[in-house]
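Exercise: predict the fold of this chain.
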Amino acid sequence: MRQFFTIEFLLLGILVGCTPVALANSVTGGQALSANLGANAKLAVVQSSVTLVHAGTTFANFTGTVTVQYRVRTTPSGSSTLAVKAASDFSPATGPSVVNGDLTYTCSGATLGSNCAGSPTVSTTATTNVVTVGAGACTGAGCGNPDPNSVSVSLTLTDSPTFKTGTYTNSLLFSISAI
């Protein structure tokens, strides 16, 4: 009888030892992922403010430079435009005037896209182009250009003897769009 209990305990031990393996379960699953990356753009103005400086002869223009950094991705048939406009006219109203065409700019060094042409006049009502980026473009090493991209905007403010003395202020609004 003792041998019978030993065999029972041995069988019970084998069954208990095998039970977790026999009852174990492992499940795997998969999930397909999809992301629709559309056109997108972002910009940053490097300098928080710019003081236009007078240099040279009497009544020579005031000049200053702003650097704008941008990231952009355009669709195969799309484009992107980085543009600028003045928030308002200069204040106080006794000096230079955006409305009268006293503020112009040139663009240089765009690391992606085409610089503006000529010397556009800044407007208070409409944006004017700084950089135009063509179809299928993107920012970064995978696209063959820097991240972020950048452009230099050189501002020129007319100095006229008709302007009253004083400090004149204004704000420029840069914007970027992508399709």
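Check your answer against the key: The chain has one domain: 40-178.
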